[in-house]
Amino acid sequence: MSDPQLKSKVEELIAGHPVLLFMKGTPEAPRCGFSMRVVQVLDTMDVDYGAIDVLPALQPLREVTAEISDWQTFPQLYVNGKLVGGADIVDEMYESGELAAALGVEQPADTVQAPPPRQSPPGQSPPLQIE
Amino acid sequence: MIEAALPGADVDVIDETGAGDHLLATVTAPQFEGLSRIDQHRLVKSAVVDRFEDGQIHALSIRTSVPAR
User: Fold this and answer.
1) pLDDT, tens digit, for every residue of A77-131?
2) Helix and strand tally (H, E) in chain B?
3) Half-sphere exposure of A104 (CA within 13 A, CB side)
4) Which of A2, A93, B2, B29 could form a disulfide with A99 if both were Cys (CB 3.0 to 4.6 A apart)?
5) Sheet of A50-53: strands edge to edge?
6) Beta strand A50-53 with A19-23: parallel, antiparallel or unpaired?
7) Nearest 5 degrees, angle CA A88-CA B60-CA A30?
8) How far is B7 from chain A (nearest CA, A)?
9) What is the ipTM of this complex?
10) pLDDT, tens digit, 9 for 90 and up, residues B28-60
C-alpha cells in the first residue's frame, strides 16, 4: 500500500504537466544512463517538460507508480496524463516517429543522434606549418 | 519463459554483459497486435517476473514488435 499523500501529489503532478518525466537525477545531471537517454531524446525533440528526481524517495515512488501505472522502474515518461514508457520504449518511439506524434511536435530532421563534434585531444601539437 | 507466456512469439534474448543478468529481449508476437508499446512491454515483463524476483535477472531491455503480415 503506497503513501496516499504522496500518491495524490504524484497524480496532481501528472495531471498538471502535459509532458512529465520521472527520472534518477535531474536533466542537467542525470544519475542513470537510462534517464539520460530519455532526457537526450526530449531535448532533441525540443519540448518543454517537467522533471521529477525520484532518488530522494525511490521506494515510496515505486509503490505509487506501481499503483497508478503498473510500472515500477524509472525513468517514466508521462504524456497527457498517461504513461508512455521507460527508456526502451521512448527510444523505439523516437526512432519510429511515434513519439513526435504523441508529443504533437515535428520529428527532428536528423533522427539519428549526431555524434559529438570531433575535437582534437588536448595537448596535441598544432598542425605543422611549412615555413 | 517468454515463449511459454506468448505462444507463437518469436523471441531472441541477448546476454549484454556476458554475466547473464543484463539481458536484451527482442520479441515479436501476434498478441501485441493493437496494444500500445507499454502494454506490449508489460506482457513481456510479466512473463519473466519470477526471474527478477529470484534475482537471476537484474536488468532486461525489451524491444517489441508485431509480426509483419
Assistant:
1) 999 999 999 999 999 999 999 999 999 998 887 655 544 555 545 555 555 655 5
2) 2, 3
3) 5
4) A93
5) A50-53, A19-23, A76-79, A82-85
6) parallel
7) 55
8) 23
9) 0.72
10) 999 999 999 999 999 998 888 888 888 888 888
DSSP A54: -
- Any idea which residue has 513526435 for its cell? A100
Beta-carbon count within 10 A of B56 CB? 12
Across the A:B interface, residue pairs with CB atoms under 8 Å apart total 22
In order of A112, B2, B62, the CA distances from B48 in angstroms are 31, 7, 11
A85 CA: distance to closest CA in chain B (Å)? 6
The 10 Å Cβ neighbour count of residue A21 is: 24
Q: What is the pLDDT of residue A78?
A: 97
**Phi, psi (degrees; rounded to nearest 5) at B35:** -95, 150
Q: What are phi and psi of A84, to 5 degrees?
A: -85, -45
Q: Which residue has the cell 510500472?
A: A71
Which amino acid would we find at residue B16?
Answer: E
